[in-house]
Amino acid sequence: MKKLSARRRHPMAALVVLLLALACTGGLYAAFAPASKAQADETAQSLAIDEGKKLYAVGCASCHGTGGQGGSDGPSLVGVGAAAVDFQVSTGRMPAATSQGVQVPQKKNIYTQAEIDQLAAYIASFGAGPNVPTEAQYGPEGADIAKGGDLFRTNCAQCHNFTGKGGALTRGKYAPSLEDVDPKHIYEAMQTGPQNMPSFPDTTLSEQNKKDIIAYLDAVNSSDSESPGGLELGGLGPVSEGLFGWIFGLGGLIAVAVWVAARTAKAKKS
């Protein structure tokens, strides 16, 4: 009887074994189970920021400061957001040339889209700002072209011309042409207000308003568009068209009047 009692298991032994088995199973699962989507996204974002920091140190820090605080040669980047970075770098405006004049022009882009995304991720970490828009935000689906035309003529035509051909501003500055501009970049420009342009946040122009304006510009600048008024003279607006009318229209009338007067004088002499 004593031997049987000695071999009898402790009442808690089974529970201890079960807990150890569960702990081992949980540990193995945590070690080998695939990471969740949120964890994967967070890891990818962290890697993008690290790579963007390296690119920033080489191409941006000399003007904008090591922490984006700005300097004598460049403004602060705190709070500009990823959209501003994507617009400025994708269009080649940044990095700026050492002597670009009164306005930074568009030029050939020197970064890949992956590198631009990394730069945008790093600069966005300085402070919250507008995000890069998705295709659903600037694409033609659900856009109202007529409404976009009204909005463009009210808010944009004073500088960009009523069909987006661009125009001159004061002191050598200019509003660039919007022909053949990527719809994403037009949306980003409205979001962030680059250089001389004011910004149009969603409180001023809603996401739908921006979509409508982009659809209007695509309609008036596409190769299939037709001018309902006839010869558009390059779509440069009423000033150029009025000047054309004065020079050729009025000039033609004067020429006809001179010709008639000369013919009349000859007829009287004969």
UniProtKB/TrEMBL annotation:
Signal peptide: 1-30
Top class in the EC scheme: translocase
Membrane topology, record value: Multi-pass membrane protein
Record has Transport as a keyword: yes
Transferase in keyword set: no
Top-rank lineage group of the source organism: Bacteria
Gene3D superfamilies, alphabetized: Cytochrome c-like domain (1.10.760.10)
Compartment list: Cell membrane
The Cytochrome c domain, residue ranges: 47-127, 143-221
Record's keyword terms, sorted: Cell membrane, Electron transport, Heme, Iron, Membrane, Metal-binding, Repeat, Respiratory chain, Signal, Translocase, Transmembrane, Transmembrane helix, Transport
Chief place where the protein resides: membrane
Catalysed reaction, written as an equation: a quinol + 2 Fe(III)-[cytochrome c](out) = a quinone + 2 Fe(II)-[cytochrome c](out) + 2 H(+)(out)
Quaternary state and interactors: The cytochrome bc1 complex is composed of a cytochrome b (QcrB), the Rieske iron-sulfur protein (QcrA) and a diheme cytochrome c (QcrC) subunit.
Identification of the protein by name: Cytochrome bc1 complex cytochrome c subunit
Annotated Pfam families: Cytochrom_C (PF00034), Cytochrome_CBB3 (PF13442)
Gene source species: Streptomyces bobili
EC nos: 7.1.1.8
InterPro entries from the UniProt entry: bc1_cytC-su, Cyt_c-like_dom, Cyt_c-like_dom_sf, Cytochrome_c_Oxidase_Subunit
Transmembrane domains' residue ranges: 243-262
PROSITE patterns: CYTC, PROKAR_LIPOPROTEIN
